[in-house]
Write a structure and sequence with these properties.
- By secondary structure, this protein is mainly alpha-helical.
- Helices cover 65% and strands 0% of the residues.
- The mean pLDDT is 81.
Amino acid sequence: MNITLLTKKLQKFAFTILTLFFGIMASAQDTVPVTTSTKTTTTEEWYMDPTYLIIGGVVLIIVIALLVRGGGRGTRD
């Protein structure tokens, strides 16, 4: 019985210490002076390139053609 009481108190103490530690770390982040430089770059996403759309369309048509053609391979009477 005393072990569970001691364990609960130890867990509460550890939780309090961790909360205090993370609170100090979070407030320390606000006091650090940071110098930043702004550099703008324009990047084109891969899905905006028409080449990928064309290749994707061709692959889709080939897959559909293979699926449709594969259904006709039945036995001949």
